[in-house]
Structure formats: C-alpha cells, structure tokens
Fold this sequence. Notes:
CATH architecture of the largest domain in chain B: Orthogonal Bundle
Number of domains of chain A: 2
Largest sheet of chain B: none
Radius of gyration of chain B: 25 Å
Largest interface: A-B, 139 and 129 residues
Distance between the termini of chain A: 35 Å
Number of strands of chain A: 2
CATH architecture of the largest domain in chain A: Orthogonal Bundle
Radius of gyration of chain A: 25 Å
Order of helices and strands of chain B: HHHHHHHHHHHHHHHH
Number of domains of chain B: 2
Structural class of chain A: mainly alpha
Strand order of the largest sheet of chain A: 1-2
Oligomer: heterodimer
Number of helices of chain B: 16
Shape of chain A: globular
CATH topology of the largest domain in chain B: MetI-like fold
Shape of chain B: globular
CATH superfamily of the largest domain in chain A: MetI-like
Distance between the termini of chain B: 32 Å
CATH class of the largest domain in chain B: Mainly Alpha
Number of helices of chain A: 15
Amino acid sequence: MTAASATRPSKVAPKRVGERQEALAGYALIAVPMVLFLVLNIGSIVYAAFISLWKWNVRTGPQKFLGLDNYVNALNDPIFRSAITNTLYYTVIWVPLTMALGLFLAVIVNQKIRGKTFFRGAFYFPSIASSAAITTIWIFLLNPFGLFNEVRGVLGLNPIFSLLGYDPNQDWLGDYHTAMNGVIILNAWTTSGTFMIFYLASLQAIPHEVYEAAAIDGAGAWDTFWRVTFPLLRPGHFFVATVGIIGGLQLFDQAVMIGNVDGAPANSLMTLVLYLYNAAFKRLQYGYAAAIGVVLFLIIFTATLIQRRIFEGRQPATA
Amino acid sequence: MKQGQMQNPPQMPRQGEDAPAPDVPGSSMTSRAVVASGGDAGLAAALPAPVSQPRTTVVGDTSHAWRRRLAYFFLIAYALLMFVPFGWTLITSFKTLEDSVRLTIIPQPFTTAAWEYALNNLQPNIVQMFFNSFVVAIAVTLTNVVLGSLAGYAFARLRFPGRNILFLIVLATLMIPDQLRMLPIYIITNSLGLGKGPLQLVSIVLVLAISATSVFLLRQYFLTIPKDLEEAARMDGAGHWTTFLRVMLPLATPAIAAVTILQFQGTWNGFFWPFVLIRDQNLWTLPLGLTEFRLVGGFGTNWPPLMATVVLATAPILLLYLFFQRYFVEGIAASGVKG
C-alpha cells in the first residue's frame, strides 16, 4: 500500500515503478496544455518585454537597441497620458458603481421572494450577449433620435436636461463630454448581473448563525447589513473588485466600436489598450506598443497586490 | 496573517493515516494554491454554485410588508431595464428606417425588409460570418474540453514532481492581460504562417485552445470525486487511461458542461482576437462584422438591418442560455469577466 506517500504531494523523486508510471502519465496529460501556456503566456511576456527595449522593424525584427527609451517616450507622450487618465477615470467610476449595483441585486435576490430564479436569470441576461451586439444596441438607443432621447422627451424630463446643458437631441456617445460616461453606464448595466452572481456566492458562504446572533442582539435589517453582512463579504469584495479593476483597465471593445480606433470623439475614448493597438497596427511602432503593454501589465499587477493588502487585512476570511 | 490560515479546512492528521487521509492534501492544497495565485483568492469562494440552496438573509418573517413591496418594485424595474433594450432591438428590426427613430411599439408598417437586406446585401454574407463564428467557437470548445479534462485530471489525481509549481503557473496566466500578449502572438502566429487565408481562423483557435479557467474548473471538480471509485477501478485492473475515460470523465459531466458553455459563449462573443488576427473580410466572425458594418459605409445608421444582425448574432447564445442557464452561472462564477 502506498497510503503513507499518498497523504502528501511527493516532492521526492518517485522510486517505485508504479509511481514512475503515474508521473509519466501525469506529464503526458499536461504536456500539450503546458506547452501552450508556456509559449503563448509566459513566453509572450518575456517576448513583449524584449521587444519593448528595441526599435523594432515590422519585417526584420530588432533594429536598434533603445534600452528604456520607449518607456521614457511613452511618459512624455500627451496622448498616452490622456489614455491613462481616461482608463483610470473609467475604472475608478465603473468599478464601485457596478459593485454597488451587483451587491444590491445580490442582497435583494438572496431574500425570501417569489420568482427568485427568474430575477437572477434576468439580471444576468445582458452579460451573455457579445460586447459587439450590446454596444451596437447602446449606440442605437443613445443616438440623437434614439429611444433614450425620445423617452425623456415624452416623460417631460427635457427641462431638467437642458438645465444641465443637454439639448433634446444630445448625441451622447458622439460628444466628448459624455461619451465615456455613456460607456460607463453601458458596462455597469451589462456587468451588474455578473457581479451579482459573484456576490451571491459570497453571501451564501456566510453562516446562518451569524444572522441569528444579530437578530438576538436586536439588530435591524439596516444595521445587520452594514455591521454583519458587509464586513463578512470581505472575500467577495476582494474578488469582485479585483476582477473589476482588471477588466476596467483593459477597456477596449466598447471604445473601438463607438469611437473607432482613434478613440473618437476627440480622444475621449482613447484607452490604454486602444492606444497600444494604435501604436502597433496603425503606426507600426512595435517596440513602443510593447512598452505600453508592459506598463499596462505592471499597473494591473500592482492594483491586484494593493487590493490584496487592503482586503486581506486582519479579518479572517469566511469563505 | 496567522488568522488568515484559519480559513483552511481543519487539518486531518497529516502522516501515515489510512482511511480518509488521501483527500486531505488535495483540499488543503487547493486553498493554498488559489490564495497564492494572487488574483484569484475569491475563486474558491465563488465556486460553490450559486444555484444551490440560498439562505434567507436580513429580512426575516417579521419584516414589514412595505419593505417587501419595495424590493419587488426594484426587482421588476431592474428586470425591465435588462429586457427593454433587447426588446426594442427586436421591434426595430421589423421597422422601416423612418419608423425606427420613432417611439412606436408596434412597427408601422410592419416589414421584414430589414431582415431581407441583412441576409442578402451584407458584404461578407451574414451566413458566411455565422459559419465562421460557429467553426471557431466549436473548435475552441473542443480543445478546451479535451485538453482541460486531461490536464485537470492530471493536476487533481496524478502525483508527479513539480505538479504544484506547474499548476501555479497555469493559474498565474490568468493575471496576464491579453493586450500584453497581442504583439508577441501576432508575430508568432504570422511567423508560423498562420496569417494567411483560412489559417487566420486556426491562429485564433491556437490562441484560445486552452484557458486556465478550463483547467481550473475541471481540476476542482475532479478533486471532489471520491477516490474510492477510482481505486475500485484500479483493483479491477484498469490502467490510468481506462480509469480516466470510463470512470472519471463520465462523472465530470457537470464540469465539462460548464466549460463547454463558457468557452462556446466566450468564443462566439469574442472580439479582441478576431479584431487583431483576422484581416480577410470573408473570415470575419459576427462581432467583427457587426462592428465593421457600423463603422464602414452607410450601414452605420441604417438601424433596422443593423438590429436584425444584432438579433441574429445573439440568438444562438440566448437559446443556450434558456436551456442551460445554470451552467452559464457556474462557469462565470469560477472565471471572471472579460473586458
């Protein structure tokens, strides 16, 4: 019997024939996926980092070693800076907004109500469609003569909007003041259901006894939520925020579909990723594009680490 | 930090015990691996299917009726917000262009002209794009199921040196943004000769052939299958391969279903890689076509046929969703959102 060795993953080289066979089988099964992971993921990072140090010729490859010049140039590039600003603006607003919506939906759907399954399915529904389809719908709804402008006219809301400085046929996605906010609301709408699902999983991991204890202490629903549920959802907050930030920093599809690769109107939809795409395939500056990619990766990586610090804190996880 | 370790399941005695011990390394390793991977600390939390028995929270039976009414009001209002844009899209596809910017709920006149236009006049043909999307989505789904279950089984059940490190590497790939990989992959696939003709579709399949999510989902599922079943098969003289095919794989059907749905949907809807890797018009997938139609030429504000195309592009996923809703939810709970 190999029961003893089975209790721990063996870090020692396998001795018996059976163990050797098992190890060989293991390597055989993971071989193809592992090669793909190593080449297309790990290899890509290394390759991208390498390219970023060069002036890179599209046909012939490395042309002139630049060291960190591509990075320095990026930092001095006004469009790169506005791409960073736009991307951060989007992320800072979109993530908390969508988290709040998702949490709100999750808490409501998690109660004793009729049609729970239906509502859950309904709220998740926009997440299943492609970004292309959703964005096309959004462009249609928000066009100057679209449903949104029509409905606010019919509801008599136009005086309020004109106080805010928008005319009855405001081109929401074509005006650089409002285009990014339009994208934020679009993605809050489509992603709130996904965040709801994440929060539901976390909510259901909270032991029932905790609520019973709160009830015995005479805590009302409001207090129970803020004093008990919300802090105990810490692992959920962490997960949702991380996923959100990573997704937010990579905003691309909606920006391209609305403003084409130029980030129109007036660079207001120029995101970090879109700028990277431009540098690579419009201006053919591979080295520069790779440098932007590395910066993006570092930002995402740092954001994730900071998140871990904040959310892991002292609170023991409940998950 | 020390308290953080309390989240690990209570440890069974670690050495030399017989009966339930084999499962321990698996489960305790899971939480450690996931925590160490950085971005995925919540994965473990997210995994248990949200479909399972919900618990009642805050509002108990003592709550006031108005609170419940308020909840229903929000639920219904928000549900409407979810459906109205799609409903409006469907309605618009049966309108004339003139009528499409008016607030008529029943098209006046009702016409299928937009559908005929979308089916006949688009370049490339929409049937062609449908076919392209379908081929790529099926291929990617297949490779993920096959490679994912092989690797998932190995990581869950077979012992080999370096197993933990390799699995960590797999999980770590979840942290790498696609955009960082864009240029290297573009260069690599081109130098492999995948930049021309139908091979452009192959390059997409290659890039998406296996995702860490698929491996992770299947591994987690294999870990939950009792070892006794496998050992019984071994006793009967079955090798690893037979055990895997005859015993483990059939038991993993729910996880395979989740991976299938997740990958099919993700690839069908995918925009980024086709946008980067496909140049020939006749190889466009539907999302690419939708975007290009809007941006190029006068089709951009010809709303009714554009909406008909949106309906066509969404219909297959919608059908899948109606029938397999819980697998969508399980898959997404374990994966995360894409840009």
